Amino acid sequence: MNNNNYNITTVQESTGLCPGWISGFIDSDGSFSVNLARSTTTALGYTVSLSFTLTQHLNNLELFNLFPVYFGTGSVFCSRERLVYYKMGEMHTFETQLFPLLEAHPLMTQKRLDYADFKRVCAMVKRREHLTPNGLNQICLIKEGMNRGRY
After folding, report:
1. What is the total count of domains within the chain?
2. Facing residues of 49 across strands?
């Protein structure tokens, strides 16, 4: 979908999805990931990428096909384990679609802490802090404390 023509009211009407419901769905089945990968093309030897993913059983494929329409971006794919995923990995979309949704409709569970860390790393990457040793180390520490590392 072309974000220049993106109208959230029209999308809500056409998909039947509402922001509060999506926030609850994210609280239940969403994940915020910070990924570090070795790289021979970067000065520090690592690249940083971020992704947001929703996961459920393949029975919900029809529902998952609505998420790219709702957010105006992202991909839906299936696994051999009979799971369906919606994945978003674009910084611009985090800032223009995901973050405003979750600020207006806050997460209610411990996942809100992972969201806050994810948003923090996103801001660091935007400021290009991940390209400095100190920034990369901070991102590593934040990543270690997210999701299962928090508990």
Report:
1. 1
2. 35
